[in-house]
Amino acid sequence: MAKGPVQYVIIGFEGTEFRGEALKELVAATEKGIIRIIDIVVVKKDLDGRLTYVEITDADPSTAALEPIMTYVSGMFAQDDIDSVASVLLPGTSAGLLLVEHVWAAGFVDAIVNMNGVLIDSGFVPRDTLEVAEQSAANS
What we know:
By secondary structure, the chain is an alpha+beta fold.
């Protein structure tokens, strides 16, 4: 059972081929105890509009590159979630669905719960937005 906050992330990509850089970073963060991967699904739509789904739970758990993240993978994305993402993909594109526990924040979450705190909002600030804000702050 998750103790840290759990977050889903859906990332779109042009093309349908992956080189593995992102997976290597997820493995590294898992090995450091920063995150725990709960589920990963890749949805690809080829140029003819045919869909392919690749679920991490279908991978061979003894594959050396995946071994560090396969311990807790549980395949929690529902087919409706996957189909919803697939429905907005353009031909020749793909998307990665990631469900991750932020293990590093488990103690923080416990402290908030003990104080009867509740999450009001959460989100990501896109890198380009942050860069603009940092530049603006530096110039003022």
